[in-house]
Amino acid sequence: MVDPRNTTRDAYLIAAIPTQYTTSEIVQLFARGYDRYLVDGEPDPETVLSDVERFVTGAFEPAQRERTLERSFVDRPATLVLLATIGTICVMEHFRFENTPVRRNQVIHHIRELFANNLLSLIREYDDPTLYQDIAEVLYGKPPSEDGPHPGRVCTDVTTMSQSSTDGFDDEFKEDTLYIEIPMAAASRACLTRTTDEATSAEETGEIRTQLANNSLYIPIEDFETDYQEYAETGFSSLRSVQEDELGEDERSWLTANETAISDRIERAIRGGHYEKLWQNWDQGQRLVRLLRSAISASPNIQVGEFHTSKELYDALEAYDPETNGEEAQLRQLSNHRSVAKTLANNESHQSITIERSGRVNTYQIAHSSSGARPIEVDDLEDLFELPCLAALDERLQEEKPVRKDLFNIVRMVMWLPQYQDASLEETIDDLQNLFSRWPWHDPEITEYQIKYEARRGERGIGPEGTTPLPMNCDNDDMQRYCIGQDQCPYSIYGSLPFPDDMYDQLDGNDDWF
């Protein structure tokens, strides 16, 4: 039985591996967090909210999220859990995210990242090897077999290794490196950590970093921490779910009515056009705009670029014959002119939607696509480098070996271009080989492997079966390495390239598998 409200180590334990504990035990962790905010035995919700706002606004800042790995932003695990979970609910309750799935809410992703980094920093500071062992039980233990779970500990030590005991280690062994020790009898495949940064061979995965000695596997501590960060971000949903059930409607209403800093930060991002800070891999309102443009273009009564009432727009939608299942599903949601007006108001932040409120009846303008991102005609694959981010990538790849994600992303872009929708895989490979040959490190065998790997992803269950994985959009963290700044760039990947509607239809209908 654990007692997180009164025992510090138990508080660390439940915060660290919440998936292993009950709802009531997590609620006791919340209680420990609230206890810190008691003033003369009475709750102090204003101070709680102030700290929640500080945490969430901090999560907006990449430097803060990164810096927290070195120095904790919040100094106690129960406080961290409390602020992060309440902050997430404040974001979810915000009207800007009314129609946003949690998986597409970039702010929540940032909160999860800050939470995971902060928690890892606290665990390091706490410096209890037995806590690392408990975490390793979750990360690396075998699933129960027919004979039941492994009877001993999964992690038997957190240790440095003397040179005399490392005869089986590779040449990069360092005596001062900490390792997680896992007996072979207890080890799962998750213990085999690998290097994955560069595509230097035709192998799907990189070299194994886990070491073997003394009939045990030794996982470098930095790999353990990387694995744990991934778990912590995922495990955070368990904490969030409990908090969602714990907070009543009155408490939610109070939070919504009284928080200001989070709303200010959200509105600042919208005013600056930084939608990537709010929505992940999902261009808010883009599918609605495309549908309305199509319906307006098909109507003899109204025009794209002109102001119209919601009734006029609804009439055009009602007369429109949808071309895809995605459009048909959207039309079902726009069942009358009031739902059209409400949906447009919810998506007013989109650069192609303008609402005129000066008259007796609101009117709405759907701008031509040319008023948004500058279009690119891709007659030859080298036309892709008109995108400034790909031009920067091209320059880098002239000097350095590639990162796997960069190459895979180019493959995805090409596979989604209209001229390759019905092309054979062999034709696609030939054209990509010609494109990749511009870089000095090009290896035809590796290139062919990578293209076929992407083509097989849907068949292997990564994403909907038989589909091509989606290319990264401008707001993807990996693309940010090459971005010149979205507020300065006249292009966008999803807006400028001539991708078919089928690709955009997938954006709302899948999890973050791409």
TrEMBL record:
This is Primase-associated protein. It comes from the Archaea. Residues 10-270 form the Primase-associated N-terminal domain. It comes from Saliphagus infecundisoli. Residues 286-366 form the Primase-associated winged helix domain. Pfam families: DUF8111, DUF8140, WH_Halo_primase. Residues 390-510 form the Primase-associated C-terminal domain.
